[in-house]
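for the writeup, i need someone to sanity check this before i put it in the appendix. the sequnce is what the collaborator sent (i think, or maybe the updated version? ugh). structure was predicted straight from it, no edits. if anything looks off just tell me and ill rerun, i have time this weekend
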Amino acid sequence: MKLEKDYIRRTIRYYANIYDHIDTDDAAQRIKSSIWFRGPNVWILAFSIIIASVGLNVNSTAVIIGAMLISPLMGPIIGVGLAIGTNDLDLLKLAFKNLLVMVAISLIASTLFFLLSPLDLTNPTELEARTSPTVYDVLIALFGGFAGILENSRKERGTVIAGVAIATALMPPLCTAGYGLSCLNMHYFLGAMYLFIINSVFIILATYLMVKYLRFRTVTGLDPKRASRRRHLMTTLITIVIIPSVISFIGLVRDNSFEQKVQAFVTENKLVSRSYIYDYRIYKDHGRKVELFLTGEPLSFEAQTSLYASARSHKIKDNQLIVKEHSLGMTGEEMNEMVREIYDKTDRDMAEKEAQLNYLQSRIDSLSRLVESLVVDPNVPILPEEKH
């Protein structure tokens, strides 16, 4: 038993060991060099912001991804995490200053674009998606930060940084914030800036943790008083970064949990007596609440009691549920007919989709047979052509 445990331990250590594959001194120099923000980097950032804004304007995911690959935004953010992890106050000041300059240039460029853009923003789905951070954004930023600092620390670098830039999506929130400024829409501006701050903070947190784990070289050689002041300042900064991040993460987890409960509740209660839940809205007003929109006959007392009991079974409190009824003035028979039409339309749509799938499958089978008939079997000898 002990031999098996030792073998398993050695195997895990062999595959998971990273210290033989990293160079922290070289990594620190690379990160410091990526913090500088002058000359070409200024224009590259402005151009990438314009490209991302165009992508958001026309709802083009490919264009947005291209802009994120071009952007140099990751450098100062990882630099802040490195500075906090190595107690380098001078590096922290430089990285944070360059990050603020980058954010300012990004907001100016995106605001000017949306002010001058001739494109009509009729369906801003990509913009709207950048105004409400979720727990998934936190997880992506955190593990993206881990991947980013590990990639910077490797002796042989690959393409991970490009993937991190795409996954963490730092550019689109700034473009969305610029759109909010251009049309004076605080919902877009504040929501997008909150998402950008969440992403940045968790990348910084991941970088700090990994810098400590990989044992990067810390700043030394200071006089005791100055070193003590720096330690206190760094402790304060770490606290400022970690505590709001943890609070925000907990809040986002609770929001996500509440949304899942509401979705399950609405799915289970689409039909309430002779009424139909056609929409719902989740919002925060002194706590998480859900507003249901029903149409059909007014709910009876028994139907209301049953609806609230179902909500409680999904751990939604009575004071979290708001029911808005919109009567259509229908008779019971008309309401039943409307419900039947809804079900019939759903059945027709599903039947059409199934027929399309069957047709596509038959085409695939036909093409497969055609390819098989055209492929020459290497085991069958090719006969020479007859001479006429």
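Residues 2-219 form a domain with the Glycerol uptake facilitator protein fold (CATH 1.20.1080). Confidence is low (pLDDT under 50) at residues 382-388.
thx in advance!!
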